Amino acid sequence: MEQKIDLVNIYTYLTPIALFLILLEMLYCYFYKKNYISFSQAITNLGTAIGNQCVNLGVAYVVITVFGKIYDYRFFTIPTTLLNFIFLLIAFDGLFYWFHRHGHSINILWAAHMPHHSSEEFNLFVGLRASITQRLFSFSYMWPLALMGFEPAAIYAASAVQLIIAFWHHTRVIKKMGWFEIIFNSPSYHRIHHAINEKYLDKNFGEIFILWDKIFGTCVKEDEEPVYGCLTPINSLDPNKIYVQYWKMLYTDMMNTRSWKDKVKLWFMPLGWRPLDVKHIERHRVNEKTIKPFMVEVSPSKKIYLASQGVLGLILMGITINLGNHLDLLIRFSLIFVLWLMITSWGKTLEDKKEYGILEILRLVFTFIIFMHLMGESTQELNLIYVLAIIMTTGFIQLALHLKLRPLPQMKN
């Protein structure tokens, strides 16, 4: 009998693989002087990924619980062997094609998917740019797999494996790949998917296999330079604004239309459909000729600070989402809150928003409270204590050097 896969170990390899590929792309761009990656967008993309991973703790619980109920009524019992996992991955990718395609054609699904497309660059950091709602919506298409007899934990693991396979497609370094592209998706095909060129819109939805697009008539080959972004640009480096941009647009239309029918209907209509009585509310739209990339200048000192905070944020995220760590629920949620303050602060820092100072102070004070709580406990989570200590130290140094606090007013006699 073929040995079953240890599903827990699958996740152990994913983050190091992604970070290693990003490092290779950065080295390539440095040595060959390619302007494919901007610092501000890289930090923003990293921030959206951290927020996404925190939310996915809850998504994993919901999916495995709900799919477990469906699995009770399964047609077959399919053990998670290597061969069966490959079949599961193929089936998962086929269903994901339809979720992905509908995600570009139905308002509510585009709201969940749009954050990933809102970058005006295309590099492996964009592969990290994530929505906090997409994964939950994507699993609404995957329940037939549990009914067939695949284990819920295996289905969730398949989503992670598919994610890392699709991750390397987000690069301009690799050009066309010849025979490989007969069946499989590639960077060239995926560049088209992220483009706003009129001839490229809504094409190449496959993640692992481009074969789905060839079968269902959505495959296009790259023959002109893609222009990246969204037709409704975000113009922000704040992960929270990126997460909610299209949700906010739909909510605004829902609140302003007088028709109760349209308040419900607009969520499920084709992408871009709006009630007649709200079309006067303008939405800024662009095309491949009129789009203007949203760029900001970042000082060298801020780059050093944000880069170090990005590394620390990744380490803190890894500790927080690792269920093997013996953290009580309150501490885990507190760490998620700290991470959310971190990524929000990064966006404010990049955009030089005045709220940055207050937000950084709040973040550091809250981090200090958790740090002191852990110090007072007989905890073995020393790695977490060290990371929190470094985060606080670097944060306070940044405040002292760069906040430019106004002097206190002089007291009058």
Word description of this protein:
- This protein is an all-alpha fold and 413 residues long.
- The chain is 60% helix and 0% strand.
- It has 17 helices and no strands.
- The radius of gyration is 23 Å and the shape is globular.
- Mean pLDDT is 89; it is low at 405-413.
Secondary-structure element pattern, one letter each: HHHHHHHHHHHHHHHHH
Biggest beta sheet summary? none
Q: Summarize the amount of helix as a percent range.
A: 55-70%
What is the end-to-end distance?
90 Å
Rounded average pLDDT: 89
Report the structural category: mainly alpha
The Rg value, from CA coordinates, equals 23 Å
Identify the overall geometry: globular
Low-confidence stretches: 405-413
Oligomerization category of the chains in this entry:
single chain
Strand content: under 5%
SS summary, helix count: 17
Short description:
The protein has 17 helices and no strands. It has helices at 7-12, 14-31, 39-71, 82-103, 107-117, 124-128, 134-139, 143-148, 152-167, 187-193, 211-216, 239-256, 260-265, 300-321, 329-350, 356-376, 382-402.
Protein topology:
Layout: H1 7-12, H2 14-31, H3 39-71, H4 82-103, H5 107-117, H6 124-128, H7 134-139, H8 143-148, H9 152-167, H10 187-193, H11 211-216, H12 239-256, H13 260-265, H14 300-321, H15 329-350, H16 356-376, H17 382-402
Features:
disordered C terminus; 2 domains; globular; 17 helices; single chain; mainly alpha; 413 residues
